[in-house]
Amino acid sequence: MRSLGTIPNRSESIRKLAAEYAKEHIRFNAVAPGVVDTPLHKDNPKDFLKTLSPMGTIATSEDIASAVVYLTESRQITGEVLHVDGGAHNGRW
Fold first, then answer.
1. Does the reported pTM lie above 0.90?
2. 40: which residues sit within 8 A by CB, 6+ positions away?
């Protein structure tokens, strides 16, 4: 098993693995969630959590599951990181 490395290198690792295993039709993709409405955030004010993304939204577990299903069923997609974070990965807004 290979490590995906540190967080800043994760996208690069996904792309490298996708390229290495493409001939075997093995795909590598990742979902990068932002703030998700789970019991982990039960004590955090929802209004504050909404400020953590430019869209002002909080993802649901269904949003994350839908992203996983999308990548799983999309046979021509490999080497991608699908951000489900309301745009937060783009930096400060």
1. no
2. none
What pLDDT score does 29 carry? 97
Query: What is the SS3 string spanning the chain?
Result: CCCCCCHHHHHHHHHHHHHHHHHHCCCCEEEEECCECCHHHCCCCHHHHHCCCCCCCCECHHHHHHHHHHHHHCCCCCCEEEEECCCHHHCCC
Q: Please name which of 85, 44, 54 lies closest in space to residue 67, comparing C-alpha atoms.
A: 85
For residues 82 and 11, the answer to whether their CB atoms sit within 8 Å is no
Find residue 82's DSSP bridge partners: 31
What is the arithmetic mean of pLDDT over 14-30?
A: 97
